[in-house]
Amino acid sequence: MRHLYLLRHTKSAWDVPGQSDKERPLAPRGRKACRPMGRLLAALDPAPDQVLCSTAVRARQTWEGCAKAGGLDWPTSFRDDLYLATANQLLHAVRRLPGSTAAVLLVGHNPGMEELARALAGRGSDAAALARLAEKYPTGGFAAFAAPLAAWSDLAFGAARLVAFETPKRLEEG
């Protein structure tokens, strides 16, 4: 069984004139959202063997904030190809993972993360998680998938089971 976790960056700031999109940092609300998401990540079973994170400042700060909050020290690669990647580009990145990787966390952006999550969810997906995913994939949204694959190269749309979908707001309320 392979496990794929998708984390959209938390809320970013828009108030710095002349700043490029890639350089936008997290807003105070985004930094705060890293705490419950970090605790959620710390409870993952299995834990990721690897984290693939976009090089955008807001994605890096999300991963770093979550890692600090959850006490996580997972091997991490910061990758330019994940910045604003489409669902197909994200799928391609996952399909290239080595066979020794049983679980991976992607930290990235919408619309690609949401499109990938919706496209991957196949037969046997959790109905409540699917309903929440269909409603919205907000900043800080997290999707967990399980897929009975011999190799990551076999991952295809509809070939995974959505087992959880959480948001910072739900975790803070709950």
Describe the fold and architecture.
This protein is α/β, with parallel strands linked by helices. The protein has a single domain, classed as Phosphoglycerate mutase-like (Rossmann fold), CATH 3.40.50. It is 36% helix and 20% strand. The chain is built from 6 helices and 6 strands. Strands 3-2-4-1-5-6 form a 6-stranded mixed sheet, sandwiched between helices. Helix 2 links the parallel strand 2 and strand 3. Helix 1 packs across helix 2 and helix 3 packs across helix 4. The longest helix has 15 residues. The protein starts with a strand and ends with a helix.
Summed up:
With 174 residues, this protein is an alpha/beta fold.
Topology:
Blueprint: E1 2-8, H1 28-42, E2 50-54, H2 57-70, E3 76-79, H3 87-95, E4 103-108, H4 112-120, H5 127-135, E5 142-147, E6 161-166, H6 168-173
Helix pairs in contact: 1-2, 3-4
Radius of gyration: 15 Å
How many beta strands in the DSSP annotation?
6
The proportion of residues forming helix, as a percent range, comes to: 25-40%
- Name the helix and strand elements from N-terminus to C-terminus, one letter apiece: EHEHEHEHHEEH
CATH topology call:
Rossmann fold
Strand content: 15-25%
Structural class: alpha/beta
Total DSSP helices:
6
- List segments where confidence is low: pLDDT < 50 over at least 5 consecutive residues: none
Shape: globular
CATH class: Alpha Beta
Mean pLDDT, to the nearest integer, reads 96
Task: Give the tally of structural domains.
Answer: 1
So, CATH architecture? Answer: 3-Layer(aba) Sandwich
The largest pleated sheet is described as: 6 strands, mixed
The N- to C-terminal Cα distance equals 29 Å
Biggest sheet strand line-up: 3-2-4-1-5-6
CATH superfamily: Phosphoglycerate mutase-like
